Amino acid sequence: MPVALCAMSHSPLMGRNDPDQEVIDAVDAAFDHARRFIADFAPDLIVIFAPDHYNGVFYDLLPPFCIGAAAQSVGDYGTEAGPLDVDRDAAHTITREVLDSGIDAAFSERMHVDHGFAQALQLLVGSITAVPTVPIFINSVAEPLGPISRVRLLGEAVGRAANKLGRRVLFVGSGGLSHDPPIPQFTTSPEQVRERLIDGRNPSDAEREVRERRVIAAGRDFAAGTATIQPLNPHWDQHLLEILASGELEQIDTWTNDWFVEQAGHSSHEVRTWIAAYAALHANGPYQVTSSFYREIPEWIAGFGITTALTRSSNHMK
Ligand SMILES: O=C(O)/C=C/c1cccc(O)c1O
Ligand SMILES: [Fe+2]
Q: Which stretches make up the Extradiol ring-cleavage dioxygenase class III enzyme subunit B domain (predicted)?
C-alpha cells in the first residue's frame, strides 16, 4: 500500500502576530499545495508525530515517546478541543511493533495533546477528527532528551508497522525548525514555575491567557528585534531540509542535543518529529520530496517549513 508524508512547522502565533501579507500568502499557498497533495493521496490513516508544550505531558512522568490509543486535545491557543478520532487497533499494532523493535515507548489510553497535534491536523485535513489518526508524542521540549538516533529508530519501527497495516498511511511531523520560543526550562525556572512543569494539568482560563499573552508578546518583540531569544538559523534549517530530502537520515545521528540548541534554539528539538516521520517513510522504501517550502518568520518565532514526500513505489501506485 502507498504511504506519504507531510512535515510542517507549527506556531500558535499564526493569526495572532502575523508577518507581511506577502509572507502569509506564500505560507497559505504552501499549505494549499500540501492539502491538495493529501487530498490526492486520500489517506485512510494519519500517523502524526508531534511534541507537547507542558499542556499534556509533565515532569511528574516524562516519557521520551508515547503512542496514544485514545487522545484528547486541550484546545490551547484556540485550537480545536476534544477527542481525536484515534484508530485504536492501528495504535495497538504500531505499539507492538515499536516495543518488539526494542524502543520503549509509553502507551496511553487517554493522551492529552496540544497545538502541536491539533494545529497540524486542522491545517492539513480540516479538523482533529477528519481522518482516523494515531498520535505519537515525541518529547522535544523537556530535557533531558535521549540521543537523536533513537528518534530515527522509533520512526523506522512505526514505518514497518504501517507497512503491515495495509492502509494508505500519511505520516505527519509537526514542529521545528530552528526556533527558541519562551518555553520555560526546568533547571532555570523558579519554584512556582517548576511546580507547573511537574503537574500543570487543567490550568484556569486566566492562567492559560497569561501564558499565551506572554508568548504572543515575545513574538512581537522578536520581530521588532528587541527580544532576547535566540535568532532563527535559516542555514541550519536548509541543511536539515537537504539531509531529509537526501534520505541519508543516519547523518543526523551524530548531532548532539547541545549542538541542536547552540545552532537552532531549544525548540529545534521539535525537528525530532520530522526525523521520525521521514524515517517512517524511509522504512517503506526510497522516497522523493515532492514539495519543499521554507521561510524565516520571526513574527511566529519559527523557521517555517512545509514539505511533502512519497515513496517512489507510491508515486507509481497513485
Ligand atoms: O507557548 C507555547 O506553548 C509554544 C509556543 C510556540 C511558539 C512558536 C513556535 C512553536 O513551535 C511553539 O510551540
Ligand atoms: Fe512547538
A: 7-305
